[in-house]
Amino acid sequence: MTISNSTNSFLSEAKSLVLDNITNEQFGVSELAEKMNVSRSSLLRKIKKQTSLSASQFIREIRLQKAHALLLDTELTASEIAFEVGFSNPSYFTKCYREYFGYPPGETKTRKEQVTFKEYSNKEETEEVKVKNKNLNSNIVIITILSIIAIIYFFKERGLSNEEKQIKVKSVAFLPFKNLSEDNSNLYFINGIMESSLSNLQKIEDLRVISRTSTEKYRNNPKTVREIAEELQVNYLIEGSGQKMGDEVLVSIQLIDANSDNPIWSEQYRYQLIDVFELQNTIAKKIAFAIEANVTTKELELINKKPTENVIAYDFYLKGIENQNEQSEAGLQKAILNFEKAIEEDSEYANAYAQIAICYYYLDNNKIKKQYLDKLNTYADNALLYDSTSELPLIAKALYYINTTEYNLAIPYLEKALDYNPNASSVILILSDLYARVVPDTHKYLTYSLKGMKLNIAANDSISKSFIYLNLSNALVQNGFAKEALKYIEESLKYNPENQYSSYLKNFIDYANKKDLNSLREKMLIEWRKDTTRADITQELAKTYYFQEDYENALVYYEKYIHILSTHKIDLYPAENIKIAYTYKKLGFSDKAEKYLSKYKDYLEKDESIYREASLAMLYLYENKPDKAIDAYDKFSLQDGFQYWILLFLEEDPLVESLSTHPKYDEVFQKIKDRFWENHNSLKKSLKEQELI
Asked: Are 678 and 671 in contact (CB under 8 A)?
């Protein structure tokens, strides 16, 4: 049954309430029942009795009928109308519309004069017509079902359906806008419009939006659209130009399908400066609609939110951003002055407070003595006071905690920032680094490394790219993706063959793939000869001899390692002290063995990591307490997120080998392996779902 303009007061009220909330995709059965002051079950029963429809079908038909009217009476596109009637997914809207009316939204106007079997009507039907329509509908349903079965069979035999073949990754990059103003000093304003429009698009999780830093190098670059798109690995590019003339701004913009090199949408805008936010929001929404991105109600609200009502304040803010992008101390100081002027015009301008905090973070960055911690914290708190639902205030507060080395406090702010801007590449790269170094979590380390590479890899020179690929390769191998890690470590060496950290890691990745200790030892010896002062390589080389129970050579390199630590007055890799102690013990140096055993025990007292039980097990093995060791490993087998290196080298250790005759050895060590690979498979599934691998 199709909903008509019934005189039934219950249905009329229900329909009116749905129409009042038509743009809200979250307005469903429960919300309608609440508005009508009836129980959900009562609403379901009444609608079913009077329309033969379920309540959700009732709501959907009202949305589709409204969409039909808008398609006939307005110039809005189908994607825009989808959002107007509460569908966040334009593709799903098209599917529902086609099922309901028998043709896609794009054909609505051409069929205006045609009468369809589901057309909205005010006329009463005679019983004879109702019977005929009922029979007609039954026949249509049968034919439709048979057609669907045939189509499914046809495409099943041939792999992907046409719809699946047409799916394109929704990836987009803004190329730098051209300033057409007569006054070149207006470049900051045109850049600001581009960057703000980009920032709005970044709020849409269904899109992959490349960072501004990745595209800036194409400002005066002669490369073709296809060449740029291939380098950035995107399917869509946005080109634009603009000029500021008095109290007006003119912008021309076009969205290009990179595969065909053809514009699929273009527009010219002439806006008053006081309406500049509406212009930026419109650009972002039009692009999202053209790409058919899935935009949630929350994301639309974030896009439509104005950062300030004061255009003068916004003008100072854009000048500050331009200064900040100079990436120099002088530029940061000038940026602070402009952001302060923005605050003078609007004392509640949250983003201006946040940007000042961010400037102070960079002024203190890499300095042992922090001069601006108090200012950073004050401005970050003010930013959060005026807006806690945007990414910049959250980033500012996180940077304060990073500068105070309270990393566990920084992470929640950074992850919350991604709720408001899932494409924030700077946040993703910071999280990747934190999870790699200071708050170890192998799964999150890899996830954020992959996201960061997709959003920001093109922004970097060859040296930087080499280190980004090195970082990603390390994250992959730590999670057991040894073959994939090899691919990216080779990319790292391709961009910088002199990157010794990459050649060093490649040796271990080769071992992960081939399990050849002799080969690893020889390769590490070559690396060590390149730089005999590196503590990391020296202790790794010593360890390869230790694993092969060649204690004499192990001691040679362990003592070189000890000398390096002593010379530089540093204490690296305290977990290695148990191996050093055991090496001394095997060679009869009991006093030195006790010294390093004591160092190891000191390390254990402070160890709160996920590896604590495995480290305790090593102590128990040294002390010849196999039952305690096996219990400790049993507890360790419950841990998540430990590195693949543990699995690769655990049973190579001579101390662990002494446990191999224990009756519970096979069971416990299999549990450790099973735990790792279960987590590996779970992570792999998650990364595929996120289209990261």
From this structure: no
CATH of the domain at 51: 1.10.10.60
Domain count, the chain: 6
pLDDT band at 458 (very low <50, low <70, confident <90, very high): low
The pair of structure tokens assigned to 640 is 């998540």
Q: Provide the pLDDT for residue 123.
A: 38
Structural domain including 452 reads 426-511
Alpha helices in 182-238 (DSSP H): 187-202, 212-215, 225-232
Which residues, other chains included, contact 671 with Cβ-Cβ below 8 Å and sequence gap of 6+?
A: 634, 637
Q: What is the pLDDT of residue 48?
A: 80
pLDDT tens, residue by residue, 185-201: 677 888 888 888 888 88
Dist. CA 144–CA 338, nearest whole Å: 64
The alpha helices in 421-499, defined as continuous H runs, are: 425-437, 442-456, 462-478, 482-495
Looking at the fold, whether 182 and 217 belong to one and the same domain comes out as: yes
As a whole number of angstroms, the distance between CA 278 and CA 248 comes to: 13
- Start-end of H helices in 571-611: 577-586, 590-606
Give me the chain's average pLDDT, please.
84
Spatial distance between the Cα atoms of 459 and 686, rounded to a whole number of angstroms: 27
Q: Provide the CA 259 distance to its chain's centre, in angstroms.
A: 25
Asked whether the beta carbons of 335 and 325 are under 8 A apart, the reply is: no
Q: Residue 563: its pLDDT value, please?
A: 94
Residue 631, CA distances (Å) to 449, 524, 625, 634, 635 in order: 35, 34, 10, 5, 6
On whether both 185 and 292 belong to a single domain, the answer is yes
- Please identify, among 421, 448, 467, the residue that sits at the C-terminal boundary of a domain: 421
* pLDDT for residue 229: 86
The pLDDT tens digits for 666-691 are 999 999 999 999 999 999 999 988 88
Residues contacting 499, CB < 8 A, separation 6+: 463, 466, 467, 470, 492, 493
Q: How deeply is 408 buried, as exposed, middle or buried, from its count of CB atoms within 10 A (0-12, 13-18, 19+)?
A: exposed
Q: What letter does residue 328 receive in the DSSP assignment?
A: S
Residue 220: the pLDDT is 76
